[in-house]
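Morning!

This is the sequence you dropped in the shared folder:
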Amino acid sequence: MDRTFSEDIDFKINHNQVWDEFKKRFMRGFFAVSILLTLFGCMGCSSLLYYPQRVLYQDPASLGFHPDDIYIESSKDVTINAWFFKHKANTSTKGIFVFFHGNGENLSSHYMTLLWLLDFDYDYLIFDYQGYGKSQGEPSPKGTLEDGIAALRWVHMNFPKKPIFIFGQSLGGAVAMKTVIEFKNEIPISGVFVDSTFLSYKSEARDVLAKTWFTWILQPFTNLLLSDKYAPGNEVEKISPIPLIVIHGDNDQTVAIEQGRAVFEKAKEPKEFWLAKGGKHTDALWRNHQTEFRQKILDKVNQLTVASH
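The structure's back. Tokens below.
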């Protein structure tokens, strides 16, 4: 039997109501499932903080460098991999830099940042956190702190009378500062350089989540899923009296410059803030800024070395 005009209207209205209700329920379910999946992915912080890779990105041999490939015991049953680069001249090293790299890839994509130091009679060690490259384990805030302490112990044990300088980039800057806070009374450290970094894992995770509409709503969960127990936070003032140099670009789209300024403001003297005008994330030693900031680092370490004698 054919529907009347009024019945046809009622059918369309009911059909639209059912369809609208279905869409609402679907979207609620979609967001609920998405949030749950994201939260499960965030457990242990790894999906927000760490992006490790096992592949070899750039073989130093292809650039004419042959670092010592070493393994350091970080914590019980966990060994991390590191490369130690020696300066080119047959002279005594002026000092040792320890490089805490950022949260992506592994040391084979980061080591080139400080290769230029070898031309000025400085050696340097770069190490991989647990779960990166050939290092055992899985990355975590506690693990990265253990790795930093182990790397510093190795350098001090092998070069007990040489000045030690710390260079931390991005997440590596946060790890480096916390390592110095925990370890500075055990070995002497002449200076700390941090580039494009932050004080709090929670605040940085919130910034990361705020960058897309899909994850924006998840920002409050960072307080539940992340801990700042192993972040420098307000303890950054304890780095003093070791000089702290904070480097940050004002066009950093990854770690906002406000994060770097917060590091500087919380720290105690002696401290300096070096602004890379127009600089993006971690490019102070690259592109248009490299000549300026490489020289600034050399001048600063020379000043600190002289002052310590």
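Headline: The chain has one domain: 46-307.

More detail when I'm at my desk.
O.
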